[in-house]
Amino acid sequence: MAWSEINRDAWTKNFLTELFKGARIPLDQTEGATMSFFKVETTGDCALSVKPGKEPRPMFELRIELDWNVEQPVDNGKSIAEAKGHITVTEFSSEAITEPQMQLRCDNKLPPGATPAFQGLVDKLNAAVKESGLPEVSRMLAEDYVSELKRQRP
């Protein structure tokens, strides 16, 4: 029997939106900061090749736009410092599952009256996104997404 291809474009968009919007990523090197995502846009193609008795083969080439937010409790938890930005997964494909190509952009616009100490905190949060957040996004794609995609049988 030949391989058959099952389109998983709609499933992929829904799954990735739920995966990222439901994520709360603790960031190392901070005092309890967490990263979350408030906008997820996925474009590209995804299919699953299946053949009875064989392991399903995912085939995809995706571009993913993620708007992120980091919240850090400050002043003994009385208020929250925020940092925002954008991750573009420029290329995530079944040819290089463990190496999605990503670009990080941090919004460094400070609120009026922000002190130099606040700038230092925002810089620290942005660095934590680079050091902890990006690897976790990569892991979520390579492990969570791909393993769930392989379970999508007709």
TrEMBL record:
Please identify the protein, giving its name as recorded. Activator of Hsp90 ATPase AHSA1-like N-terminal domain-containing protein
Kindly give the Gene3D superfamilies that the UniProt entry links to this protein.
Activator of Hsp90 ATPase Aha1, N-terminal domain
> Which GO cellular component does the record give, naming just one?
cytosol
What lineage is this protein's organism placed in?
Eukaryota, Sar, Alveolata, Dinophyceae, Peridiniales
Q: InterPro entries annotated for this entry?
A: Aha1, AHSA1-like_N
Query: Per its record, what are the GO molecular function terms?
Result: ATPase activator activity; protein-folding chaperone binding
Set out the biological process GO terms recorded for this chain's protein.
protein folding
Q: Name one Pfam family in it.
A: Aha1_N
Q: Where is the Activator of Hsp90 ATPase AHSA1-like N-terminal domain?
A: 7-151
Q: Which domain of life is it from?
A: Eukaryota
Q: Which organism is it from?
A: Zooxanthella nutricula
Membership in a protein family: Belongs to the AHA1 family.
